[in-house]
């Protein structure tokens, strides 16, 4: 993060603008709307500056910049069309540890002006750190169409109730849950219809109701890694939760979307490293919910596909803990799509099996015969450690050694890597390319289609030894 976004109260604070033309005028208008006390120095001024001086909103100094003009100022803006003057302002301000903005010269900016969406008292600021101002402006235009005008009156209404809510409801978590209920209620509809007295009365009624602090567990699928694959429901519950209990397979980019002040508890689970036993995770969810917490159990992929989501919900049932389940894009679907591998194809695969590479608790083997049928796609989760065993058993059950395979590492993420080859090379591919978790094995004729259908990230790495993979007809 190159700049720290801050909202600064500028009411009656002294600000210096160097420059009196159209660029300086735009900055001055923004600063005046924030209540700043403006001093503007320039050899000549646009007409609006003169009007502001007559109205007592700005002090104009007809002349040129000198460092003594910085005395007592909070901020300074260099907005002339002379690079030497702008550089002199920047150097003088920097020497005094003052925040300075040099218009259209990002390296000489100690602070920057973002694009602003104003729904006062709701403000949204968007910035590209000065690298792509047109892109930031277009983002602002897009958000302007999405954010309703009633946000401002709604914020003013709830602002008047903050002290009442704080006096009546103790504890930050309980107050946050109350406000979540308000924003899901008809109070919002009344404000939108400009029925403010009715909205205020309805808010009073909600505050008079008994405040229950019942806990709840949200079992949420986070998908394979790309945050854009999250469902809207998943994002909503991630923002509402008091506590987020997550696995290693949840990408850092997705964890960035969790509510900032939510407690975060990692319970591990990755190949070769189960940092928290499953029964301890179950008990953790129970304890948090019984304490009145809204708990988001965030899992990579889909919670009901090799995610133990069902086991965790079963643990909640004896305690009558409320729960929701939000499906996610499972790794098989997400990673295969990003690798350009259709899991089914009417010419090459009429069925698909999802299996886990982990041994069953009783040590029994899966049905290798059913998994070795031709014209079927086999997707193996958590199969890296057992890659050699998987290869051996499928070959022994009759699957052809020439069957195409792909190993998808970090699927759907920017660092996605695909190693491709044939079934008879599987174990050697894992070792040769030092593939690490998270990774998915895809075995079947459809894998060869990635040569034509690949679209995301780097091209698949073909095996550098053994039989060459040929395209399918």
From TrEMBL:
It catalyses: uroporphyrinogen III + 2 S-adenosyl-L-methionine = precorrin-2 + 2 S-adenosyl-L-homocysteine + H(+); siroheme + 2 H(+) = sirohydrochlorin + Fe(2+); precorrin-2 + NAD(+) = sirohydrochlorin + NADH + 2 H(+). Keywords: Cobalamin biosynthesis, Lyase, Methyltransferase, Multifunctional enzyme, NAD, Oxidoreductase, Phosphoprotein, Porphyrin biosynthesis, S-adenosyl-L-methionine, Transferase. PROSITE patterns: SUMT_1 (PS00839), SUMT_2 (PS00840). Gene3D superfamilies: Cobalt-precorrin-4 Transmethylase, Domain 1 (3.40.1010.10), Methyltransferase, Cobalt-precorrin-4 Transmethylase, Domain 2 (3.30.950.10), NAD(P)-binding Rossmann-like Domain (3.40.50.720), Sirohaem synthase, dimerisation domain (1.10.8.210), Siroheme synthase, domain 2 (3.30.160.110). Pfam families: CysG_dimeriser, NAD_binding_7, TP_methylase. The modification Phosphoserine is found at residue 128. Residues 1-203 are annotated as: Precorrin-2 dehydrogenase / sirohydrochlorin ferrochelatase. Residues 150-207 form the Sirohaem synthase dimerisation domain. It comes from the Bacteria. CDD domains: SUMT. GO terms for biological process: cobalamin biosynthetic process; methylation; siroheme biosynthetic process. GO terms for molecular function: NAD binding; precorrin-2 dehydrogenase activity; sirohydrochlorin ferrochelatase activity; uroporphyrin-III C-methyltransferase activity. NAD(+) binds at residues 22-23, 43-44. SUPFAM superfamilies: NAD(P)-binding Rossmann-fold domains, Siroheme synthase middle domains-like, Tetrapyrrole methylase. The active site is at 247 (proton acceptor), 269 (proton donor). InterPro entries: 4pyrrol_Mease, 4pyrrol_Methylase_sf, 4pyrrole_Mease_sub1, 4pyrrole_Mease_sub2, CobA/CysG_C, NAD(P)-bd_dom_sf, Siro_Cobalamin_biosynth, Sirohaem_synt_dimer_dom_sf. In the C-terminal section; belongs to the precorrin methyltransferase family. PANTHER family: SIROHEME SYNTHASE (PTHR45790:SF1), SIROHEME SYNTHASE-RELATED (PTHR45790). Then it catalyzes the NAD-dependent ring dehydrogenation of precorrin-2 to yield sirohydrochlorin. Finally, it catalyzes the ferrochelation of sirohydrochlorin to yield siroheme. This is Siroheme synthase. It comes from Rheinheimera lutimaris.
């Amino acid at each position: 993060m190159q700049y720290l976004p801050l909202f600064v109260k500028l009411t009656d604070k002294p600000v210096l603008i160097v420059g009196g033309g159209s660029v300086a005028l735009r900055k001055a208008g923004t600063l005046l709307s924030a209540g700043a006390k403006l001093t503007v120095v320039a050899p000549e001024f646009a007409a609006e500056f003169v009007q502001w001086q007559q109205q007592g909103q700005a002090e104009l100094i007809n002349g040129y910049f000198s460092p003594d003009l910085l005395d007592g100022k909070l901020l300074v803006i260099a907005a002339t069309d002379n690079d030497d003057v702008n550089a002199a302002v920047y150097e003088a301000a920097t020497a005094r540890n003052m925040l300075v903005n040099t218009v259209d010269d990002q390296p000489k900016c100690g602070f920057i002006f973002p694009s602003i969406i104003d729904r006062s008292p709701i403000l949204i600021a968007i910035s590209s750190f000065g690298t792509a101002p047109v892109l930031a402006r277009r983002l602002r235009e897009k958000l302007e169409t999405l954010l309703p005008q009633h946000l401002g009156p709604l914020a003013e209404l709830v602002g008047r109730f903050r002290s009442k809510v704080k006096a009546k409801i103790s504890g930050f978590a309980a107050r946050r849950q109350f406000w979540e209920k308000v924003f899901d209620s008809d109070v919002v509809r009344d404000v939108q219809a400009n029925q403010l007295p009715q909205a205020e009365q309805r808010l009073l009624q909600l505050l008079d109701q008994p405040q229950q602090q019942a806990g709840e567990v949200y079992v949420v699928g986070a998908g394979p890694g790309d945050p854009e694959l999250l469902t809207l429901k998943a994002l909503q519950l991630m923002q509402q939760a008091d506590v987020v209990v997550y696995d290693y397979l949840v990408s850092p980019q997705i964890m960035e979307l969790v509510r900032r002040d939510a407690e975060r508890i990692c319970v591990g689970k990755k190949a070769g490293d189960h940092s928290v036993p499953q029964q301890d995770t179950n008990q953790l969810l129970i304890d948090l919910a019984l304490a009145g917490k809204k708990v988001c159990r965030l899992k990579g992929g889909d919670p009901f596909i090799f995610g133990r989501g069902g086991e965790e919900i079963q643990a909640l049932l004896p305690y009558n803990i409320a729960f929701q389940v939000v499906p996610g894009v499972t790794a098989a679907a997400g990673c295969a799509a990003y690798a350009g591998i259709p899991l089914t194809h009417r010419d090459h695969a009429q069925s698909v099996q999802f299996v886990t590479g982990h041994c069953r608790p009783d040590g029994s083997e899966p049905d290798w015969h059913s998994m070795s049928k031709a014209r079927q796609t086999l997707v193996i989760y958590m199969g890296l450690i057992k890659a050699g065993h998987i290869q051996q058993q499928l070959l022994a059950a009759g699957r052809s050694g020439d069957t195409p395979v792909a190993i998808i590492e970090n699927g759907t993420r920017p660092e996605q890597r695909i190693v491709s080859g044939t079934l008879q090379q599987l174990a050697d591919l894992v070792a040769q390319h030092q593939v690490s978790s998270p990774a998915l094995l895809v075995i079947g004729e459809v894998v060869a289609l990635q040569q034509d259908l690949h679209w995301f990230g780097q091209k698949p790495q073909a095996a550098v030894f053994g039989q060459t993979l040929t395209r399918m007809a």
